[in-house]
Amino acid sequence: MAPRQGHNLSKNARFAEVVDELAGGYRTIGQMVYAVLKEAITSGTFAPGEWLRQESLAEAIGVSRIPVRTALLQLESDGLVTFHPHRGARVCTLSPAQINEIYRLRTLLESYALRLSMTRMNPDRAEALRKLAARLDEEHEGKEFLDVRVRFYRELYDSENNPLLVQMIEELRGHVGRYLLGFRFSGSHKRQHSDLVEHVAGGDLSSAEAWLYSHLEGVRQGIESILLDEGGDAAPDENAEVEDDGEPPADPSPPGGGQAASRAQAAG
Amino acid sequence: MAPRQGHNLSKNARFAEVVDELAGGYRTIGQMVYAVLKEAITSGTFAPGEWLRQESLAEAIGVSRIPVRTALLQLESDGLVTFHPHRGARVCTLSPAQINEIYRLRTLLESYALRLSMTRMNPDRAEALRKLAARLDEEHEGKEFLDVRVRFYRELYDSENNPLLVQMIEELRGHVGRYLLGFRFSGSHKRQHSDLVEHVAGGDLSSAEAWLYSHLEGVRQGIESILLDEGGDAAPDENAEVEDDGEPPADPSPPGGGQAASRAQAAG
DNA sequence: TTGTCGTAGTATGGATACATTCAACAAGCT
DNA sequence: AGCTTGTTGAATGTATCCATACTACGACAA
Predict the structure, then answer these.
(1) Which of A17, A32, A39, A77 to mutate: most B Cβ within 10 Å?
(2) What fold, for B96-233?
(3) pLDDT exceeding 70 applies to what percent of chain B?
(4) Contact A143, A155 (CB under 8 A)
């Protein structure tokens, strides 16, 4: 019992950091809780498949259950948690097939966005992209990295003229981000995004697309290897998480909290 | 239940029909209200830009405000309504630019789905598609039509193997459906879907894609003409008949960076 | 020993009541 | 007259409380 306690303690401590970090400056408490929980899920503080108890979350954040419910409902529509009526909400688990489909769709959407963007390329945008890419190739961790990455791809994909397209891409990226938390540091990623920008600025569509394919495929394979490792490690087979009831009742809170802790971004 | 106001009687009557029709058979009241409101919005019972008052909706359905709020929040994440904090929710309004983007994305996604589907075509699926297409070409209205259409496209696009792709397509279709309510009857639509099925079953990709492009472009132009008519009639821009503002303050993003603001995109 | 039934516990879903916030209106000031 | 400011009203957002549904556990019978 003690190890579990200490375990939750560290998790609660990290969660408290997230709370403190984002607790101020929102119009409503529900929006704040939404940001907190989204950050906690996408950063891996809550592991895939973990149950999210409304009451404990409310207590940890310091609000009532209502805004927690509000946030969880929005996260459900975002595809990050699933509700089981009268049983609760748990963090979405993605099967390898689902992850593959996400990357197929990302390839389709992002190459389309790339083509659209390059037809409207101009020196100003190219220069902005160079600056963002340089920052992106320097930082590899933390919220600063995530923020710059969002801004880079919004500029690259011309979110001004393709807001819905960019939103869909970001949603897909958000689904899979938590599965490759410790992966980003492997490999020699020097100048990657800057290379892409040069292809784009030079009007070399095929090279740019090749970069994109290679990039996405590399990340996809990284997730696949991670999933294979973890699959052999502990998780037997978390099947489809459709809200269809009648699941095997012998499915208690997965012991994966520890794994999540070890995978969280150490460098924050 | 009891008609509250006399001036919107016909609207309330139609809404009451929707309520009665969908009121039974759900796990939770919130899910029922979600289905009711989604149906009411996509069927045009609630006009784009119209305010959705939680209390009146709750009274009309016969529940409290909580499940109504629940449903509205889910609909916001679906992109069908937008929340203005402390002011309320209104049915999303789509600008012509947004509708064009939706159709560009539908073309991209649906042609991709078509290609994927045709690589796995077999006589069984072709036969199922023929039957569904025949039914679809007979019925042109009502919930039966909508239901058969969903089943046809799920079979056509192989939702078994591409669940996320089909879900995204259906979401996009749901966004624009309410804009072409009276449009579907114009033109000679005889055998349209059956023609498509023959192309697909025969392995004629280019003809199938040509059918798809023509179909989507026809519907898009229909919506465009409708919007132009209505635009000259009453609405100068996204503000509907409601006389008050549409963008009260500059809608300050939360200070946590740009990422938490991904929710209010589809509103425009 | 096994399978079924019944009961208790717990967490969610929903309803009611309260607090907060925004917007409109009116009065006062420059 | 125009602008600013205080007040009022209404609708939302939140908290607390209650009912319901699901799970777990234990007793009893075959």
Answers:
(1) A77
(2) Four Helix Bundle (Hemerythrin (Met), subunit A) (1.20.120)
(3) 72
(4) no
